[in-house]
Amino acid sequence: MSSNIDYDVARPARLPARSSQGIVLGLDPWQVTTLLAAAATILLSVQRFGPAGLLYAAPIYLPLGVGAVIRTRGMSLPRWVAVWLNKAFRGATGANREVFAPEKVRSAGTLRLPGRLGAIELWDVDGMTCVYDPHGRSATIMAELEVPGFLMKDLHERFDLAERWALVLASFTQRAGIKRVTMQERTTPTTIQVARDRFAQRTGSLDVPSATRRYQAVMDRSEGYAVAHRNYLTLTYDLVKLAPQLKALGGGKGAIQRLAAVEAGNVRDALDGAEVRVKRWLGVRDVAALARTAFDPASVTTVESRSGDLAGVDPAAMGPTYMEEPKGKNGLVYTDSGVHTTMWIHEWPRSAAPVGFVNDLVFSRHPVTNAAISHIFTTVMTPVPVGAALKRIRQEKKTWRSNERMRAGRGQDGSAVDRADYEALEAQEEGLVSGHGEYQYAGYLTVTASDESDLEQAVAGVRNSLSRAGMEAQILYAQQGEALLVNALPIGLGLK
Questions:
Q1: What is the DSSP code (8-state) at residue 299?
Q2: What secondary structure does DSSP assign to 245-274, as a single string?
Q3: CB neighbours (10 Å) of residue 151?
Q4: What are the tens digits of pLDDT across the range 43-101?
Q5: Percent helix, strand and coil across the chain, each rounded to 5?
Q6: Reduced to 3 states, what is the DSSP secondary structure of residue 218?
Q7: SS3 state of residue 19
Q8: DSSP alpha helix (H) spans, 203-339
Q9: pLDDT-derived band of residue 304, with 50, 70 and 90 as boundaries?
C-alpha cells in the first residue's frame, strides 16, 4: 500500500489480483515439472529407438504435454492430479474417516483430535489458554474482540479505525517471533438464555401474570432466530525464534507460559490504541467449546446455555466423535451433527470497496428460508520480514521482465493483466518503503448445515454475498478434512 495514494474514504479498499506470471510465461512449478517430464520422455525415447521413438512414446509425452498447460478451477491440472492422488491414498489407508472410541486408552495431556493434532496441549495461564504444539514448536493465544458501535460510526470514523488496525497488523510483522496471525469471524445459531435470566431476575417483584406470559411467549418465538456474530484474533508464536527470550525466562513449560502472559498484555495494549477491545482471552473450556460446536452444531444451544464454572466444554470432548470425507463426494465433509463445505477465497476486491466490505458475507442469508447461514470465515496471515518481502518483489519483477522479453521475441504484446501485475508489484514496494508491513495471506470460508440439500442452498447464499462484496471463492475439492480443521479449531493452523 502506498502512502502517496489519495484514498476515497468511502471506498478505500483495493486488493491486487494474484500474480499470473508464474515461473515462466504464467506456468507454475507443477506445470514446468510436467513439461520437463514430457521433454525427458521424448529425449530418452529418441535416444533409445531413434525417430521411431517419437511414435512409441506418444502415449506418454502427449498427455503430459497437453495436461501441463490445462488449468481448471483456478489451479493447473498437474497440481489437481497431485491433490486427488493424495486423497485417494488417504482413502486407501483409512485416513479419511475418524471415529472416536470412548474406551480407547489415550495418553495424558493429549486431545481427541485427528492425526498429529492429538499431541497438542492446552495450558491454563491465569484463566487464559496457551496452546502448545510440540510438532510445530509453537505457542498460540486467542482473544475475542469487540469494536463497539463500528456499524454505527460514520465513514470517516470507520476509515480512521481501519488505518489504526492496519498499523497494529504492520507492527506484528516487525516481530521476529510471530509465526502467524489469524482473524476469524463465526456466525452461529445461539440461545437467548442471558435475556431469559435477566427477565427472571426483574420480574420477581411484578404481579402481572398476563404480561409475563406474553413476554415469555415472545422469547420462545425469538429463540429460533437468535444468531451470534463473534470475532477472534489468534497469534501463533515461533518458539524456535524466541528461544533466547525463553532461555532468559528460565526455559521449559513455565517460560512458555510466562511468555504467553507477557504477549497477551502487549497485544491488549496495541489493540487499545486502535480502539479494538479485547472482550476476553479464551480459556481452556472456551477453546474447546468453539471446536466442539463447529463439529457438532446441534450442541450449540446446550453449550451456550452453560454459565459459571460449567461454561464451555471440557477439553476431552472438543474433537469430533465422527469425521469423514466420503468417497465420491470431494466437496464436503461429515462430522457429528453437521455437513460442511470449506472454500478458499481466491479473488478479493480489486475495485474500490468500502471499509467492512465483508459485511455482506457476515450477514449472508439462506436464499430460501432467509435464515442466517452458519459459517466460519478465517483469514490466515503469515508475516513477511521487510527484507524478504523486498527480495521477493525484486525476483518477481525480474520474472515479469523476462516474460516480457519472451513475449516480445514471439511478436506478442503484453496484456492488461500483465500490466496490472507489474503495477501491483510497484505498489507493494512503495508500501514497504513507506513503513507498511507485508503478509502472505489466505482466506477460508466454512459453511455448515444439517444435511446436504440445506448445505447446497447455504453455499448458494454465501456465493451471492461474496459476489456483492467483490470476492470469489472455490471449493477446496479433495482437501475438505484438513480445511475444516483449519477453520473449526481456533488454534492458529494454516493450510499447506
A1: G
A2: HHHHTTSHHHHHHHHHHHHHHHHHHHHHHT
A3: 9
A4: 999 888 888 888 888 889 898 988 888 887 767 888 888 888 888 888 888 778 888 87
A5: 45, 20, 30
A6: helix
A7: coil
A8: 209-223, 243-248, 252-273, 284-295, 300-304
A9: confident
- Which amino acid is present at 209? P
Write down the pLDDT at residue 96.
84
Alpha-carbon distance 199 to 308, whole Å?
A: 18
CA separation, residue 291 to residues 123, 284, 309, 314 (Å): 16, 11, 18, 11
Better pLDDT: 98 or 143: 143
The CB-based long-range contact list for 12-15 (8 Å cut-off, 24+ gap) reads 12/159, 12/162, 12/352, 12/354, 12/355, 13/349, 13/352, 13/353, 13/354, 13/355, 13/357, 14/349, 14/350, 14/351, 14/352, 14/353, 15/348, 15/349, 15/350
DSSP string, 51-94: GGHHHHTHHHHHHHHHHHT-EETTEEHHHHHHHHHHHHHHHHTT
CA-to-CA separations, 243 to 128, 265, 267, in angstroms, rounded: 22, 20, 20
What is the mean pLDDT of the segment spanning 381-393?
A: 84
Distance CA 345, CA 47 (A): 47
pLDDT of residue 22: 64
Contact between residue 438 and residue 171 where contact means Cβ atoms under 8 Å apart: no
Residue 239 grid cell: 518458539
Which residue from 433, 436, 327 is spatially nearest to 84, judged by alpha carbons? 327
Among candidates 180, 182, 167, which has minimal Cα distance to 273?
A: 167
| Residue 383 scores a pLDDT above 50 | yes
233-258 burial, b at 16+ Cβ within 10 Å, e below that, comes to bbbbbbbeebeeebeebeeeeebbbb
- Residue 3: what pLDDT? 42
Strongest mean pLDDT among 163-172, 219-228, 277-286, 346-355: 277-286
* Inter-CA distances, 332 with 340, 342, 448, 478, Å: 6, 7, 10, 8
Query: For residue 397, how many other CB atoms are within 10 A of its CB?
Result: 16
pLDDT tens per residue, range 10-58: 676 666 666 666 666 667 788 888 999 999 999 999 888 888 888 888 8
Task: Quote the CA–CA distance of 335 and 341 in Å, as a whole number.
Answer: 11
The pLDDT of residue 1 is 39
Q: Which residue has the cell 514446468?
A: 32
Helix (H) or strand (E) holding 481: helix 480-488
CA end-to-end span of the chain, whole Å?
A: 26
- Residue 292 pLDDT exceeds 70: yes
C-alpha cell at 426: 510497484
Stretch 326-351: mean pLDDT, rounded?
90
Residue 115's identity, in one-letter code, is G
